[in-house]
Amino acid sequence: MSSSVNKFKILILGGYGVFGKRLTSELMKIPHFSNKTNVGTNFDIIIGGRNLQNAQEFAHRLNAAKPINNGHSSPFTASASGISVDIHNEQHFKKTLRELQPNLVIHTCGPFQGQNYHVAEECIENGVHYLDLADSREFVSQFSKHLNEKALKHNVVAISGVSTVPGISSSVIDYCSREHNEFGFTEIHKVECSVSPGNRAPRGESTMRAVLSYCGKPIPMVENNTKINVIGWQGLKQIQLKGLSSTRYVSYCDVPDIDLFPEYYPHLKEYKFRAGLELGIFQFGLLGMSYLTRMGIVNDWASKAPLLKKISEWFYNMGTDSGGMQMIMTGKDRQHNEKIVQFDLIALKGDGPQIPSTPAVILARKIAQNELKVGAQPCIGQFTLDELMAALKEFNISHSFSVGK
């Protein structure tokens, strides 16, 4: 059977940012081919951001670095270009979208805390597929409620939270929900999830704004099948990521999983999420900042993100470029005995930002090959853990499972 080639235009909002840069570089790799449909895809990638020069310079670097298939010609190509676009100017974004007419928009411009759905709505109304890397609990958990009916009407795939949470965290739970594998459960009752990047990992200002937005403020967790309030960046705990030599401190953070997982995983009675910074001076600094908020001295740390980012850069040469994610799951095995399984996802040599960027790469390729159902939904069950690890095989990233007592 002969193969055919389709052209697929992708607008990546924030395409030269910390995460946008990673996923854009991956989408430039060729070929994009589906064995199911015997159809290949040429990606025409448009890098969008407020700084036109940055967008164009990055596009130029991508085009110059395109791989040559050992001197052989190939029907598969990828090209990149840069444009200026400001998502906070709704009229400008609407005009840009109608002029470009992309097949897919990938929205990486955080922080998503406090954003409305105008980018997704505009995409859906114009028949453009949509993905975002949102980590805001409210934004992701309410996404389907606000947009599913409209997405179905316009025959559009729209998925929110295409990142570490809830995308990767749900793929791990799904994997462990298979009874036939060594690490499978019949029921998962409790999950403790932690993320700790290396100090030398790149950090954008928008990410800092996001994590500072709930510092010292009440956020929900699930305990004994009930929502309880904890305080952002408190609940300090020490963890050992398997594969890293030193322990890390982590504290409570706000994520979409808290609202979504009890609905998708009915046996789940407890879910807690923590994140941490490699250097203790930063982790304990955040703890102190949370108490200043509780005392009413500082109400909004997010506005201090530019200053705090600059201060953090003074300590860049301390710590490492290694980090990871850990999930400890407790439940019942096939003999109805209690079982504990630990999952660790470890990134070395600065490849940590590739982890939250990769789910969007996987789903963009699936959308290009018409492999996803239309509708607006959170990123739960959209890709498997096996698909994730296959997409990460070229990076210094590994995973492991271990059974506890």
Spell out the key features of this protein:
405 residues, alpha/beta, Rossmann fold, Dihydrodipicolinate Reductase, domain 2, seven-stranded mixed beta sheet, 13 helices, NAD(P)-bd_dom_sf, Sacchrp_dh_NADP-bd
Structure described in brief:
This protein is α/β, with parallel strands linked by helices and 405 residues long. It has helices spanning 18-27, 52-64, 90-100, 118-125, 137-141, 143-153, 164-176, 205-212, 257-264, 280-294, 305-313, 354-368, 385-391, and strands at 4-13, 33-34, 39-49, 78-84, 104-107, 129-132, 157-160, 187-196, 218-223, 226-231, 237-239, 248-252, 270-275, 323-332, 338-347, 375-378, 397-404. The chain has 2 domains: 4-163 and 353-390, 3-Layer(aba) Sandwich (Rossmann fold); 165-352 and 396-404, Dihydrodipicolinate Reductase, domain 2 (2-Layer Sandwich), CATH 3.30.360.10.
Account of the 3D structure:
Helices cover 33% and strands 27% of the residues. By secondary structure, it is α/β, with parallel strands linked by helices. The chain has 2 domains: 4-163 and 353-390, NAD(P)-binding Rossmann-like Domain (Rossmann fold, 3-Layer(aba) Sandwich); 165-352 and 396-404, Dihydrodipicolinate Reductase, domain 2. The strands form 3 sheets. Strands 1, 2, 3, 4, 5, 6, 7 and 16 form an 8-stranded mixed beta sheet that branches. The model is unreliable at 68-73 (pLDDT under 50).
Helices and strands, with pairings:
Layout: E1 4-13, H1 18-27, E2 33-34, E3 39-49, H2 52-64, E4 78-84, H3 90-100, E5 104-107, H4 118-125, E6 129-132, H5 137-141, H6 143-153, E7 157-160, H7 164-176, E8 187-196, H8 205-212, E9 218-223, E10 226-231, E11 237-239, E12 248-252, H9 257-264, E13 270-275, H10 280-294, H11 305-313, E14 323-332, E15 338-347, H12 354-368, E16 375-378, H13 385-391, E17 397-404
Parallel strand pairs: 1-3, 1-5, 3-4, 5-6, 6-7, 7-16, 8-13
Antiparallel strand pairs: 2-3, 8-14, 9-10, 11-12, 12-13, 14-15, 15-17
Helix pairs in contact: 1-12, 3-4, 7-12, 8-11
